[in-house]
Design goal:
- The chain has about 270 residues and is of the alpha/beta class.
- The protein has 2 domains: about 15-100 and about 205-250, Periplasmic binding protein-like II (D-Maltodextrin-Binding Protein, domain 2, 3-Layer(aba) Sandwich), CATH 3.40.190; about 105-200, Periplasmic binding protein-like II (D-Maltodextrin-Binding Protein, domain 2), CATH 3.40.190.
- Helices cover about 30% and strands about 25% of the residues.
- It has helices at about 35-40, 45, 60-65, 80-85, 140-150, 165-170, 185-190, 195-200, 215-220, 220-240, 250, and strands spanning about 15, 25-30, 50-55, 75, 90-100, 110-115, 130, 160, 180, 190-195, 205-215.
- Strands 1, 2, 3, 4, 5 and 11 form a 6-stranded mixed β-sheet that branches. Strands 8-7-9-6-10 form a 5-stranded mixed β-sheet.
- Mean pLDDT is about 80; it is low at about 1-10 and about 245-268.
- It holds the Pfam family NMT1.
Length: about 270
Amino acid sequence: MAAAVAVAGCGADSPEKDERGGATRLTVGVGAGAFVAPLETTRFSDAGFDVKQQNVTSGSVAVPLVLNGQLQFSQADTVGALTAIAKGVPLVFVAAVTSTGAKADQDSTAILVKRDSGLKAAADLNGKKVGVNGIGGAAQIAAAAAIDKLGGDSTKVDFVELPPNSLTGAVADGTLAAAVTNRSEGQAEGLDPIIAPTAEAMPSAPLIVWVTSRQYAEKNPDIVKKFAAAAEKANDELSRDPNAYAGSWWRSRPPRSARSWPRRWPFP
């Protein structure tokens, strides 16, 4: 997902305290579905944070909100965040949210197709519409590289940008031939994975990260350090027991094959 943005007006960069319990109030941007899970652990409240979640669909949505102080932290696509930083956007990496697996069975992202579509291999995607949630982001880059590696031609694939919560439905109703999204979520919707794009294209690379603004990081170094530590502990906890803290999304839409919860969730 692209994260090239203009810097918005300055917002609040000093932490707010909850007068009742002394917790530091934070508003953080998260993706849909499984991305909420880290915040459902007790690690952030244990670290003294009162966290309010705000859904963000892409880095182009999240980054301006971080820069103007509406969000203190947000999840963001690593490629988009790096692109923004390279263009001078005052963004700072805080902690990894996910990393890609080194093997296909460790990759929680997938290029998913309808079960009866007849699409089985990378070359079958030539001339087809493939959904991603951001043109120029990690999902498209990984998918294109994986398709080329496995015998397809990504220049002949029509990548289409859609909100992440619309991708599986668009494949199911035939609007898209395939989509790059969460493997387990897609399988729960009756779709089949045919390619593990991040494992093929960039094994073990950071995929999603927590970011904040440089201004906030400079003014609140202790909070940033505590948030990073809490994020790492939450990921460790979820990797050991994916069902222990997963909330209504996970329980209402259990994947057909529940792998161990990795430090690698897709936010393409």
